[in-house]
Amino acid sequence: MHTYHEQVAGYTTNPSLMRKCGISNYKEFAMLALGAAGGKPISFEVFSDDQDEMIDQARTISWWGHNIYVKIPVTTTKGETTERVCRTLAEDGINLNITAIMTFDQIRGAARWLRPQTPAILSIFCGRIADAGKDPVPFITEASRVKHANTKILWASTRELYNVIQARQAGADIITVTPDILGKMHLIGKDLAQYSLETVQMFYNDGKEIKL
Q1: Is beta strand 120-125 parallel, antiparallel or unpaired with respect to 11-12?
Q2: Three-state DSSP class for residue 43
Q3: Is residue 43 classed exposed, middle or buried when 0-12, 13-18 and 19+ CB atoms within 10 A define those classes?
Q4: Residue 65, CB half-sphere, CA atoms under 13 Å: how many?
Q5: Is residue 147 annotated as part of the catalytic site, yes or no?
Q6: What pTM value is reported for the model?
Q7: H or E, element range at 136
């Protein structure tokens, strides 16, 4: 996080990433992450599948810091929309990040659940949409069309550096990128003839130790 801190506008996490990192104490982790974020926006997700518990957890998480966006999945594990959760929390004035959005119906529905006065994020999982053989750009375009002024559109589950270009052209406000992708940002606009030469040189140098 510290390596790229000056290049990013905010941070996010989710229960799957936390589990992968061996996190077991949510609040303890959140306090460390808030300190590292340095006041920049950061999203923390609820982890219940019960909608009443989601509301309670979201309220608790929101109290941890003024720069927090609470992530709410667009549906429960049973496919029920979280409209009641999102509407209730938006009325409370809690900044929301509605996540795992992957259909046009979900985009339009989630946009309606929010209050124009309450800052929010719609996280469109473009990488997974692309994995399913669909062009994610129209999903971003539609989200930009139906959102409130205080709602930002996020290109999520980024797969490659070119997604940064696509997200900007499609009208996304935010794109989530891994450190690996962020570390390649300097390549945007690179001369391709020079890049080709460098690639050939790399192949040559790597092949010096190989015997025919």
Answers
A1: unpaired
A2: strand
A3: buried
A4: 20
A5: no
A6: 0.90
A7: none
Tokens of 211: 């015997």
- DSSP code at position 50: S
Q: What is the pLDDT of residues 90-118, one digit of tens each?
A: 999 999 999 999 999 999 999 999 999 99
The distance of Cα 202 from the centroid of its chain, to the nearest Å, equals 34
Amino acid at residue number 163: N
Query: Structure tokens of 191?
Result: 């001369």
CA atoms of 96 and 44, how far apart (whole Å):
10
Among 88, 42, 30, which residue's Cα sits nearest to residue 69?
A: 42
Query: Does 59 have pLDDT greater than 80?
Result: yes
Nearest CA to 120 out of 150, 100, 142 is that of 150
| Alpha-carbon dihedral 126, 128, 129, 130, rounded to 10 degrees | 90
DSSP 157: S
Catalytic residue chosen out of the listed positions 20, 27, 40, 71: 71
Determine contact, residues 172/141, Cβ cutoff 8 Å. no
